[in-house]
Structures are given as C-alpha cells and as structure tokens.
Structure to design on (255 residues):
C-alpha cells in the first residue's frame, strides 16, 4: 500500500502574512481529508509562522530546499537542524529550478537526502527530463542517472522513507501537462529503477508524485494511473480551492 502524497510548492511566492492566510485557508479546506497526505511548502521566511497555523491540523509542513552541512559559512543557506526545530516534515530536494539556476547536482541531492533523513524528515526527491532530453531519446538515461545519484548509499530502510516527484521540466509552470499515458510510462520506469536497486517490495512502497502543471482539471486522470501516487503542485497550490481540487480526487484512490 502506498500513500498518496500531495504537496504544494509555493516557490518564491507569498509574503509571510499572505502565507499565514493561505495556510489557514488550506487547513480549513483540508479538514476532512483522511487518506491523502497533504503538505505545503512556503518560503523559508514563512515556515515558522505557517508551522503555528498547521499545529493540530492534518496538513504537513514542507521546506523547499536545505543545505547538507550542519552550520557555518554558507551565506544564504539554511540547515536541516533549523528546519527540524520548526517542525518541518518534508523537504523538497533537487527541484529542476534548483538544478537549472542554482547548480544543484545529483551529488548535492544525495548529500541533502542523507542529511534530511538523519533528522527524521522525509525528502521529496525531484527528478525529470527537459524537452530536449525527451526529444533526443534520453528520457530513460536521464531518469536513471538522477535516481541512481539520489539514492547512492541509501539502504532499503532509508529508501522507504523517501518520496519521489517525477516532474518533466517542460511541464513545469508551462500549462502543458504530460498526458496520463506519458506520465504513467515515466513513473513505471522510475519504479523499475527502484526495483533494480531495492527489490519489488520496497519499490512498490515508495510514493512517486507527478509534478508539472497539475491542476483540478487533470488531477483525477493522473492520480488514477497505476504508478502515480500524488502530486507536487506549483501554480495551482497558490489558492486553497484549486489545491483542494487536486487533493480531493486522491481521497478515493487506493494504491
Ligand atoms: P507547476 O509547478 O505546478 O506550476 O507546474 C510544479 C513544480 O515545480 O513543483
């Protein structure tokens, strides 16, 4: 049995006051959600205030990134300890925007995954191909490198405490979503990679989210696919009603 995990990635949106308001709206809208694990990822700046809003609710707190070192001269960065103290449950790692603009590599993803796990938080490991890679027939090669890189040195027990987000880069923020079939095929391939690394039991237990222009209109179709176990939502997570429009179809789906 896999959990459906749906997380809102707010990216660099919302002031602290706006974040508190949106978090309160999500808590109210999600109060009857039982089967889906719901999480929201505000900016670092808003995490502490949003944590207060989420206390006692069924909505989990996620951070958008982390540094792998404990502390020190890393201007602009935030450590896993700092996130843990605030009550963060999930940490998004290796988002394509981090990879494209801020030099994230499979190696830094791996270091961050290990650090986050050492403090009992759950990494959401983002992978996905660009359009050029897909068109050039390199989809499987790219996903293989990213998965093997992210999971290097992780035991089966550790792998069980991860979530993957498959996010085709060409679908992120573009309004173009992968079709149900395209997404399912990529997810099945990612699961086959996990099977190679850890065997079928473990692979069948790891939730693989889809991300990339997921919205209420396409959520039910995507979530119904065999190997799609949730979503990482950008634009559509910035309003409570559209976010819940993605979460609600997940309530009745069993994996
Ligand atoms: P999007 O972003 O839903 O706006 O495409 C998804 C993501 O980047 O996680």
């Amino acid at each position: 049995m896999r959990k459906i995990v749906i997380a809102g990635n707010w990216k660099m949106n919302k002031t602290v006051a706006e974040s508190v308001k949106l978090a309160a709206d999500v808590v109210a809208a999600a109060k009857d959600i039982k089967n889906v694990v719901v999480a929201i990822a505000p900016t670092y700046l808003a995490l502490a205030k949003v944590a207060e809003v989420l206390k006692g609710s069924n909505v989990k707190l996620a951070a958008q990134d982390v540094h792998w070192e404990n502390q020190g001269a890393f201007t602009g960065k935030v450590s896993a300890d700092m996130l843990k103290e605030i009550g963060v449950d999930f940490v998004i790692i290796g988002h394509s925007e981090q990879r494209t603009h801020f030099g994230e590599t499979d190696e830094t993803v791996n270091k961050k995954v290990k650090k986050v796990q050492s403090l009992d938080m759950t990494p959401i490991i983002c992978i996905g191909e660009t359009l050029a890679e897909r068109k050039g027939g390199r989809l499987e090669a790219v996903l293989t490198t990213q998965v093997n890189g992210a999971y290097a040195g992780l035991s089966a027990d550790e792998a069980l405490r991860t979530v993957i987000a498959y996010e085709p880069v060409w679908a992120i923020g573009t309004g173009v979503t992968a079709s149900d079939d395209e997404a399912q095929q990529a997810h099945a391939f990612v699961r086959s990679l996990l099977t190679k690394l850890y065997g079928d039991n473990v692979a069948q237990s790891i939730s693989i989210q889809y991300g990339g222009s997921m919205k209420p209109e396409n959520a039910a179709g995507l979530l119904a696919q065999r190997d799609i176990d949730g979503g990482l939502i950008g634009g559509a997570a910035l309003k409570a009603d559209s976010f819940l429009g993605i979460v609600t179809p997940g309530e009745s789906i069993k994996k």
The chain has a mean pLDDT of 97.
